């Protein structure tokens, strides 16, 4: 069970809700009785998900099509919530993108959009909605980072760097929000059986033997939220790898990352 109040119809906003972890978060939180604002670019997928959730659970949903790489999108979301009189109890910054390939061979515009989505929109949405949670002394923010944050990742350099930002930012907010009634969680999944790998031009994670199901990642996140810990690394193998990366001399880590990534690209 997640750390949400029992006597509520709380509103939780989930970005990237049309599939993968975002959809899984939506299904799990709807089971818990939370009403949802579902945000993604694909309006049809959102409408179908919203209809399924409302048919199965006594919750309300709002499906909002938005491209969070656009500079005005976060503010428009906030203004729409204000117009409808919705005070968020939860914000899950799940939307993100990757770009696989040599840094110099990937289009610059794609990297800039990646930064806009993974970093800028996450910071802006948090900055817009967190003050209201603190004022009401309740709520939570989950920022979806990645185990890639703990290492330089050749051929996914900008993605890994963006997730390093998310982790540092989220853990700092966790420190700042102690004793406010608001919980902040940094979620670091490893390989997960979603479409992220193929969309990013890396590989299909659905067939990777160590990839986790998204339901496992979401369950780990909600357990961590209940415990009010700063970071959840989903999966024991990911936890072990992150621990070893912290112990390893930095030069060895760079060498190991290069060897591992080159071997995976030849598969």
CATH architecture verdict? 3-Layer(aba) Sandwich
Strand order of the largest sheet: 3-2-1-4-5-6-7
Poorly predicted spans = 1-8
Beginning-to-end CA distance, first to last residue: 39 Å
Estimate the helix proportion, in percent. Answer: 40-55%
Structural class: alpha/beta
Strand content: 5-15%
The radius of gyration computed from the alpha-carbon positions, rounded to a whole number of angstroms, is 18 Å
CATH fold category name: Rossmann fold
Domains (count): 1
| SSE series | EHEHEHEHEHEHHEHH
Structure description:
There is one protein chain. The protein has 267 residues and is an alpha/beta fold. The chain has one domain: Rossmann fold (3-Layer(aba) Sandwich), CATH 3.40.50.720. The protein has nine helices and seven strands, in the order βαβαβαβαβαβααβαα. It has a seven-stranded parallel β-sheet with strand order 3-2-1-4-5-6-7, sandwiched between helices. Strand 2, helix 2 and strand 3 form a beta-alpha-beta unit. The radius of gyration is 18 Å and the shape is globular. Residues 1-8 have low confidence and may be disordered.
Identify the notable features of this structure and list them briefly.
267 residues; alpha/beta; seven-stranded parallel β-sheet; 9 helices; 14% strand; disordered N terminus
Topology:
Elements: E1 11-15, H1 20-31, E2 35-40, H2 43-56, E3 61-65, H3 73-83, E4 88-93, H4 108-136, E5 139-144, H5 157-176, E6 182-188, H6 196-199, H7 214-227, E7 231-233, H8 236-247, H9 250-265
Parallel strand pairs: 1-2, 1-4, 2-3, 4-5, 5-6, 6-7
């Amino acid at each position: 069970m997640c750390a949400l109040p029992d006597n509520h119809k709380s509103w939780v906003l989930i970005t990237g809700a049309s599939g993968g972890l975002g959809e899984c978060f939506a299904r799990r939180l709807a089971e818990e009785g939370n009403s949802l604002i579902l945000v993604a670019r694909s309006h049809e997928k959102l409408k179908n998900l919203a209809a399924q959730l409302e048919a199965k659970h006594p919750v309300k949903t709002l499906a909002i099509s938005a491209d969070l790489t656009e500079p005005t999108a976060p503010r428009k979301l906030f203004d729409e919530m204000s117009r409808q009189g919705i005070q968020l109890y939860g914000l899950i910054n799940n939307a993100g993108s990757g770009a696989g390939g040599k840094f110099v061979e990937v289009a610059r515009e794609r990297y800039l959009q990646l930064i806009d989505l993974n970093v800028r929109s996450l910071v802006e949405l948090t900055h817009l909605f967190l003050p209201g949670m603190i004022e009401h002394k309740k709520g939570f923010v989950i920022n979806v980072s990645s185990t890639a944050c703990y290492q330089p990742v050749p051929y996914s350099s900008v993605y890994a760097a963006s997730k390093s930002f998310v982790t540092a930012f989220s853990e700092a907010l966790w420190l700042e929000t102690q004793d406010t009634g608001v919980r902040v969680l940094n979620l670091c999944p490893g390989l997960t059986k979603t479409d992220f790998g193929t969309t990013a031009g890396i590989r299909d994670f659905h067939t990777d033997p160590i990839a986790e199901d998204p339901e496992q990642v979401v369950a780990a996140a909600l357990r961590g939220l209940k415990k009010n810990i700063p970071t959840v690394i989903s999966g024991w193998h990911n936890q072990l790898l992150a621990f070893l990366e912290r112990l390893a001399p930095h030069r060895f880590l760079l060498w190991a990352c290069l060897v591992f990534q080159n071997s995976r690209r030849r598969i």
